[in-house]
Specification:
globular, alpha/beta, eight-stranded parallel barrel, 10 helices, 8 strands, TIM Barrel
Length: 282
């Protein structure tokens, strides 16, 4: 069965320790950790030795594994060596993946592609030495805007340690469907981020805001999630990523428990009870 992980964005603003506790309260298998600040409320983990030690202890206590670390922007001028401390810390925690995104469309031109490809190759080499696989996440408002863009970039980099993280919302908003996965080598899809949303996309200028603040929990919207789950490579981890203003009144643990219930309901409706899924996969 697919391991379930809690993405930090679902419960922000929250410290990494709060994210771990929320995932544990929800009975999830794994957690994602935001080691690099993206939002003003994010903590700077890598300059806080006490926090790093506390994260190690909390993971040991809860028994959770680390699915991924986030978010790393990759472009022509990225300093890959500067990422090594965070990657080394993540490797010590047993993290499997690091989530990478490209720059915004207005920050990236075609002339930057060769340099970006070189930077990704360098990152993949470093990740291979540490046992972490970089994963590209595409978004329609970034230079890697579609599944096809991400696949093309992986092919151009040509490194076996590079893969793709598939986000249900970004797939839909970029014009993709579950059938789009038929054209993709399953080995490239390391894990998927699951949320729901209205079937109809908002105005283009509102898509980034929807992605960051207005996602829905599985079953609350109109995305073809059952079809997507059937199209994904069997058994890959599923990260629950649904920042939602409609649930902002709940604590991190309450939000994690709510989305975990929704996700388990979706999995049961799609594949049957856990015992039946285990027999099918064995």
């Amino acid at each position: 069965m697919s391991p379930l992980s809690l993405s930090p964005l679902t419960v922000l603003p929250a410290s990494p320790l709060d994210v771990i506790d929320a995932a544990h309260a929800a009975g999830l298998d794994a957690v994602g950790l935001r080691l690099q600040p993206v939002l003003p409320t994010d903590l700077e983990v890598m300059t806080d030795a006490a926090l790093m030690r506390a994260i190690e202890r909390r993971l040991a206590t809860t028994g959770l594994t680390v699915l991924d670390i986030e978010v790393f922007r990759i472009g022509a001028r990225t300093d890959i060596a500067a990422m090594q401390p965070a990657m080394a810390f993540a490797a010590a925690l047993g993290a499997r993946f690091m989530l990478c995104t490209s720059g915004l469309k207005n920050e990236h031109g075609a002339s930057a592609d060769p340099a970006t490809i070189a930077k990704l190759g360098e990152l993949c080499e470093l990740g291979a030495r540490l046992g972490i696989r970089p994963m590209l996440e595409f978004m329609i408002f970034r230079s890697l805007g579609s599944l096809e863009d991400a696949v093309r970039m992986v092919q151009q980099v040509g490194h076996p340690n590079l893969g793709i993280c598939l986000d249900a919302l970004h797939l839909a908003r970029s014009g993709g469907t579950p059938r789009s996965l038929c054209e993709v080598d399953p080995a490239l899809i390391g894990y998927a981020q699951i949320c729901d949303a209205p079937a109809a996309a908002p105005a283009p200028e509102r898509i980034p805001e929807e992605a960051r603040f207005d996602r829905l929990y599985p079953g609350e919207g109109g995305l073809p999630l059952a079809e997507l789950l059937r199209a994904l490579p069997p058994g890959i981890p599923l990260a629950l990523e649904a920042p939602s203003r409609r649930h902002a009144n709940l604590s991190p643990a309450e939000r994690a428990c709510a989305i975990a219930r929704s996700m388990r309901g979706l999995l049961e409706d799609t594949f049957g009870p856990p015992s039946e899924r285990a027999r099918t996969e064995s």
